[in-house]
Hints:
Blueprint: E1 2-4, E2 9-11, E3 20-27, E4 30-37, E5 44-51, E6 56-59, E7 70-73, E8 78-81, E9 84-85, E10 91-92, E11 96-99, E12 104-107, E13 118-120, E14 128-131, E15 143-146, E16 151-153, E17 165-169, E18 172-179, E19 183-190, E20 195-198, E21 209-214, E22 217-221, E23 232-236
Antiparallel strand pairs: 1-2, 3-4, 4-5, 5-6, 7-8, 8-11, 9-10, 11-12, 13-14, 14-15, 15-16, 17-18, 18-19, 19-20, 21-22, 22-23
Amino acid sequence: TEQYNGSAWSEVADLNTARRTNGTGATYTAAIAIGGYNSSPDITYNQTETWNGSSWTEVNDLNSGRGDAQCNGTTTAALDYGGDTVSSPPSKVATCESWNGTSWTEVNDLNTARASGSNAGNSGNTVGLCSGGRDPSAAVASNESWNGSAWTEVNDMNTAIRNNRGGGTYTSAISAGGNTGTYASDTETWNGTIWANDTSMSTARQNGIMRAASSTSGIYFGGATATMQSGTEEFTGGAKTTKTISTD
């Protein structure tokens, strides 16, 4: 586990269970690591751990172990959706579970089973956005919004992409990086209605980690191309407006 202070990374206390995992959280002192699998993936995990700023604590497990799921929310209210299960090749699932700070409850599934897409929804388990991913092995552009009880298909991304990463809110989100058949630096921003192409990352890569407050502010770190990447990139976007110019 490493912690970022705005300019540099420092190593802090490790997870209790080593795995390729997913996570979310409101701040660097309150985070949650959910499920995951080993690198094969021969084993999927349902372990859940919470971070208090200095150490990880094992808490109640997911009902269904899976890897490469999407997740959003906080340590007291989170969602975990989609992902891979163990099979050869791994099968994609639409399973969605809600976390109340103590335990996981299965709720309504995604409309499109998929793994390794982007997510958004910082405020808890009553809102969320699931975008892109792979189904079962090809990239998809599918985009779904969660209202606290069900997933609804909304406007797709401009580019079908898998292994992309995202953040923000369900009305102001960002997706960056991924794989469209080759490693991608693509960036798209969501305004609550449509996705728009935005400034690309400096390094094309997939499977990194992204955290964002909205579609105009985010950070992306790690990931992979032919080799593992340690680079960190920050995104600062501006509000887009339409300007009418008279030709008279």
